[in-house]
Every structure is written in structure tokens, then in C-alpha cells.
Amino acid sequence: MKSIRNIAASALILLGSASGASASDATVTIGDLTWTGARAIGYVIQAIINGPMGSEAVIKEGLSDGSVIAAGMDKGDGSADVYTDLWMPNRQGIWDKYVDGAKTVGHNTPYLGTQQMYVPSYMADMVKTVDDLRKPEIAAMFDKDGNGKGEYWAGDAGWKSTRMWQVKFKSYGLSDLWEPEILPDATFKGQLKAAINREQPILFYYWTPEWVHAAYDISAIEEPARTDGCENMDLDKEDWLEASHFACASTDAMIYVAYSKSLETRNPPVAKFLSQITLDPAVVNQWILRIGRDKLDPRDVAEEWVANNMNTVNEWIN
């Protein structure tokens, strides 16, 4: 038996064949970014366009390179229309080239994301600030391989934030006591679950939004307040670790839904919707929890949320 979703899609296809494609109702191509938050947002956007808006959106499998998505939005040919989770200032190059420069990419009002170092809350009384990390007895608690240094998860090998945390630990004078673990996010999440189940020490980088904040009781390490000159980063240099300095808290990231301004003529209602969508980090955390931890189908999570939150969806559309 065909699902209701497939029947509706078939009906739309037949209608389009009978009446001809409308130049002002173009199919919207959504990027397929790989992290769970971006995927969750993408499926919610797709569910709104395909559902209450009565238009058509596709998530293009494999379209996962942010630079390629941005170049496609700039072209305006429908090869890429939506960048679901544009972190700023992490992607400053994209912003400078297409938002401020060519002015071919639009965006919504952002939500805030944080980047901090965490411990499970059962360790929060012992490890509250960067100063606590300077204590040899604290570092020894996190030494997993017996080499005299505590380990912290800095992130995945491909992330610039992984380099950022190595710069921070050097700038805080922690290199003699601590060393980074550089592992894929999925591998680390397995380690985190095991450590918390056993109430073992674990020190790790994380960000919001992500489902670990909804699943576990974790506490951020306090860093020094920002001052002039506390951050001077050049992570693209060959000697990036020596050339960079970062001895203060990170600024909150501004996270946008970006879209091709060509949609303003190719599909004006969708362009309006994408400019007006406003995301709540706590809600995004819940989407991520259900998709990332509970392994639910992101399409089902998105469609259920849209059906149950039509007041919010209508505000975004209208």
C-alpha cells in the first residue's frame, strides 16, 4: 500500500505534468550537511515546504561540502538553495564572498551556539575553571594511558575547532599536563556514554545545540573573560599552533539558515519563509536527541513536529 506521503507526491507530480512547471514555484534544493543539527533543520524545512506550503523541496544526498553549497546558492540555478546551519564566524569566507560581497545569499535571524569545554556534573565541584586544570593532581585523574598527561577530547581531525582547543590549552599553559585526543564524534560519544555510566573522569569539547545536553548532566569549564588581544588565531598557517594565541572564552557563534536569493523570483513564498524562520536552540536540541541518540527517522521527527506546532510554522510562513 502506498503511504499518504507517496500518494500526495504522486498527485503533485501529475498536477505539474498537466499544468506545466511554474517559474515562481521552483523545486528547492537543500544541502545535506552531515552533523545532526544541520540534518534536523534540513528535514524540518523540507517538511514545511512539502507540507503546509504545498511546494516541493529535496535534500540532495551527498551535497555536504559547505563551500559547494555556497557556490551553488550564488549561481542561483537550483543546484543548491539552502545552507541549513551556517556557523559564524566559522564560515567567515562564505559570508564575505556571498552575503556581503556578491549579495546573492540571504539569511534569517540567527540563533546562538556556544563552544566550551565540559566535564560531567558529578565532577563539577573539582573542575570548575581553567585554573583547576593547572593542578597536576587534577590532570592525573584524566590520564588514561599512564604517560603522565591528562587527555581531553578536542574534536574530529577535520574540524578547525579541534585546532582551536589545542591553541587554547597551549595559551593557558596546560601543554605539560594535558594532551588532546582527536577522534571522530561518534567514537567520542561512545566514550562519553561509557564514562558517565561508570562515573569516570572525562574532559571534552562540545557545542550547542547538540543532543548530549539533553541526554546528560554536564557542566562547562569557566574560562577567562574576553579582553583586547586575548584571541589572535591563524589556523591555516603551517605552524598554526605556534602562530596562534587564544587565552579567553570563545564568543557565541551566530548560526543562520542561509538561502539563495534567486528563490525570491524562483519561489518567492519559500524565500520569505526562509528569511523568517527563527530557531530555538532548546527545540533543536530535542530534534537532535531524537535523531542522533534515539535513531528515529529524521523525516518522521520533522513531520511530527510540524504537525504539532502549526502556530509556530504559520508565523514563519506568514
List keywords for this structure.
six-stranded antiparallel beta sheet, 318 residues, single chain, two-stranded parallel sheet, 2 domains, D-Maltodextrin-Binding Protein, domain 2, alpha+beta
Task: Tell me what you see in this structure.
This protein has helices at residues 4-19, 36-50, 66-75, 92-101, 130-133, 136-141, 160-171, 185-197, 212-215, 240-243, 263-266, 268-276, 281-293, 298-308, 310-317; strands at 28-30, 57-59, 82-88, 105-107, 111-120, 150-155, 178-182, 204-208, 218-220, 231-232, 245-246, 253-260. The chain has 318 residues and is α+β, with helices and mostly antiparallel strands. Strand 1, helix 2 (36-50) and strand 2 form a beta-alpha-beta unit. The relative contact order is 0.18.
Brief description of this entry?
Helices cover 44% and strands 18% of the residues. It has 318 residues and is an alpha+beta fold. The chain is globular.
Low-pLDDT stretches are 1-23
Helix fraction by DSSP (H/I, runs of at least 4): 40-55%
Specify Rg, calculated over alpha carbons: 22 Å
**SS elements, strand count:** 12
Instruction: Based on Cα principal axes, name the global outline.
Output: globular
What percentage of amino acids are in beta strands?
Answer: 15-25%
Separate helix tally: 15
Q: Structural class, please?
A: alpha+beta
Largest sheet: 6 strands, antiparallel
CATH superfamily of the largest domain: Periplasmic binding protein-like II
What number of domains? Answer: 2
Instruction: Report the average pLDDT across residues.
Output: 92
CATH arch. level architecture of the largest domain: 3-Layer(aba) Sandwich
Name the quaternary structure.
single chain
Looking at the structure, the CATH topology of the largest domain is D-Maltodextrin-Binding Protein, domain 2
Ends apart, CA distance between termini? 35 Å
Element-by-element helix/strand order = HEHEHEHEEHHEHEHEHEEHEEHHHHH
| CATH class call of the largest domain | Alpha Beta
